[in-house]
Amino acid sequence: MFGNMADMMGLMGKMKDLQSKMKEAQDQLAGIVESAESGGGMVRATVNGQKTLIGLEIDKDLINPDDKEMLQDLIVAAVNKAFENLEPKIKEHLAKATDGVLPNIPGLDLGGFMK
């Protein structure tokens, strides 16, 4: 009976460690930055690991009120590509942050905890 209690206490300690490391990892995500371009580099979006758009550069030659749809499409493309490029960096960061706290469980993805 006490063996099970000790196992449970050990698990609770691991969960506290995990919670602490996840909070720390989440705070550090702001420092992970990724950029992407569209329109041959005429639009550049920069995002961080907290999934926030932190920069947007638009070539002045693209600013044409008569063709705003193209500009909107290029912005969306650049932002989406930057977020796509960011995902592997977030997963790598979280894997490092939780290394040794959780057992290596194939398929366990902690990326969803950061949304």
TrEMBL record:
Gene3D superfamilies: Nucleoid-associated protein YbaB-like domain. Pfam families: YbaB_DNA_bd. It comes from the Bacteria. The keyword Iron does not apply. The keyword Transit peptide does not apply. Keywords: Coiled coil, Cytoplasm, DNA-binding. One of its GO terms (cellular component) is cytosol. It is found in: Cytoplasm, Nucleoid. GO terms for molecular function: DNA binding. InterPro entries: YbaB-like_sf, YbaB/EbfC. Residues 8-35 form a coiled coil. Its main location: cytoplasm. Homodimer. NCBIfam families: DNA_YbaB_EbfC. Binds to DNA and alters its conformation. May be involved in regulation of gene expression, nucleoid organization and DNA protection. Belongs to the YbaB/EbfC family. This is Nucleoid-associated protein FDK13_01175. It comes from Dyadobacter frigoris.
